[in-house]
Specification:
515 residues; 7-stranded antiparallel sheet; globular; 13 helices; Beta-lactamase; 8-stranded antiparallel β-barrel; alpha+beta
């Protein structure tokens, strides 16, 4: 769960995370990394018809056979050049763990290496996939309806400041219409912990738009989803997840609880700051107040078990945590901001719509950077997590993209040869921000023309070049790697409300603020 216009709150984001309270250097690094990678209502997708069963895609076995060695090579470079203190990865294929590996150190000062089997990392907002699974368990049991006003399930009331109520489904696709605020999410010590319900009651964000109109990532909305599970089940949220997801799947080294204790605490990787070129250990991060939004600690093999269950329609061995039709529904489409780019599923972010379809979720705490990706048609998935200095953030994304480009390579799109159109020049501002505070223009994305059928994007002084591939669609050239994935940006909406979206950021959009 990071916050910014480049990755949360006031920065462009590729995925979710907590970024309140991180240093300016870390925010700047995230901005540059995202760039190097890259009201008309948003497009509402089909109602809750179960998704069709995935058509199997055969993978190139040679790419899989050499995958571990490929990852080893990427990680060797990142440990040397990307300020990565430690990292884990697990890869699953056809219902089995292909491999789980650790890299670098769990504790730099004591020279304790990361153990790919035992070391715990913080998945951040990847935790939300557990929360969405818990919520959908209640939906399939008839305890919750996706079309109910969320106030039906709460012991406090979200104010009726818009004309329509926030529905449960709006939590899943991040369209509740809240402003983004990180106040009170992170605690310094357990003495600062507040129970989930009272915290949510006392930190209701301002509703800045009608629900269901456009996706704008909401940690608060995700925490509400977990509280609904707690309310309707009668079980404390971490107890519910333990009994109905973690224990059935055998995820014995995973928990939402903070702080850790016993063996989990002993095996937890440390988070780090980079000070004067040295890794300096930081205290264990505490997100108890918004637990369902991202407080999980887990091992890579445990995350592999969760991936296998999701890929296999809710089943792992004899355990069935979701009905097959519910698992398939979650992997389907629910909402999109941009007409020609991937959107949101039922809690998942759609990474690629076909060739094959890829879904997943990212996560960023201040100290850890993670991503889980699933390819249901190929029965393949991976989880990665890094910690270290600011460079460990783009390192996570580079590793993720390297894996996608190797296993599911694609070619760049043909360049647009149609009639030239005026470049969509101007400054664009994220819709995921705190509207009750003054905007921060230094984080706006500046778009300028770069000759016919090309544009330049600038974020905090960093520039990238994009070439036109459709009437309002551009593909990134700067930093593009052979085999992809290739980042795209689309411009859309009427002249009175022009918007911009990135293919890698279905959870936010950017609005033209001046030309």
């Amino acid at each position: 769960m990071a916050r910014g216009q480049i990755r949360e709150g006031d920065m462009v984001m590729r995925d979710g995370g907590f970024w309140r309270g991180v240093s300016g250097r870390e925010r700047s690094f995230a901005c540059l990394a995202a760039l190097a990678l890259a009201t008309l209502p948003a497009t509402a997708l089909a109602d809750d018809a179960p998704a069709a069963k995935a058509v199997a895609v055969k993978l190139d076995r040679a790419r899989l056979d050499g995958l571990e060695e490929f990852v080893n090579g990427v990680m060797a470079q990142q440990l040397a050049n990307r300020e990565v203190a430690g990292a884990v990865i697990s890869v699953v294929y056809k219902g089995k763990l292909l491999f789980a590996r650790g890299y670098g150190y769990a504790d730099v000062d004591r020279a304790i290496p990361v153990d790919g089997e035992r070391t715990l990392f913080r998945p951040g907002s990847v935790s939300k996939l557990l929360t969405w699974t818990a919520l959908m368990q209640q939906v399939e049991q008839g305890q919750v309806s996706l079309d109910d006003d969320i106030n039906k399930y709460l012991d406090f009331r979200i104010p009726d400041t818009q004309s329509r109520p926030i529905l449960v489904r709006h939590l899943l696709d991040h369209t509740p219409g809240f402003e983004d605020s990180g106040v009170g999410m992170m605690s310094k010590t357990p003495a600062d912990f507040v129970a989930l319900g009272p915290w949510l009651r006392d930190h209701i964000p301002t509703r800045v738009r009608e629900p269901g109109v456009e996706t704008s990532y909401s940690n608060y909305g995700s925490a509400i989803a977990g509280y609904i599970v707690e309310r309707v089940s009668g079980e404390a949220f971490p107890d519910y997840v333990d009994r109905h997801i973690l224990q059935p799947l055998g995820m014995a080294s995973t928990t939402f609880r903070e702080p850790l204790s016993g063996v989990m605490a002993e095996n937890m990787a440390l988070g780090y700051a980079l000070t004067d070129g040295r890794f300096v250990a930081k205290p264990f991060e505490l997100y108890h107040n918004v637990m369902p939004a991202g407080s999980v600690s887990a091992t890579a093999p445990d995350m592999a078990k969760f991936m296998i269950a999701q890929l296999h329609d809710g089943r792992l061995g004899k355990a069935q945590i979701l009905k097959p039709e519910t698992a398939r529904l979650m992997r389907g489409d629910l909402m999109r901001n941009a007409p020609a780019l991937p959107g949101m599923g039922y809690g998942y972010m759609v990474v690629r719509e076909q060739g094959p379809r890829l879904i997943g979720h990212g996560g960023n705490t201040a100290d850890f950077h993670s991503f889980m990706l699933l390819a249901p048609e190929a029965d393949f998935g991976f989880f990665v997590s890094t910690t270290g200095g600011p460079g460990s953030y783009p390192a996570r994304t580079e590793l993720m993209n390297a894996l996608i480009g190797r296993v599911f390579p694609q070619a760049p799109a043909p360049r647009w040869t149609g009639a030239a159109t005026p470049a969509p020049v101007g400054a664009y501002r994220t819709n995921r921000r705190t509207y009750s505070e003054p905007p921060r223009p230094e984080f706006d994305i500046k778009v300028s023309a770069a000759g016919e059928r090309a544009i330049t994007l600038e974020i905090m002084g960093a520039r990238s070049h994009w070439e036109q591939i459709g009437p309002d669609l551009y593909e990134q050239v700067t930093g593009a790697r052979s085999g992809g994935p290739y980042e795209r940006v689309e411009f859309y909406g009427p002249d009175s409300d022009r918007k911009m979206s990135f293919g890698s950021q279905p959870h936010v959009l950017y609005r033209l603020v001046h030309q």
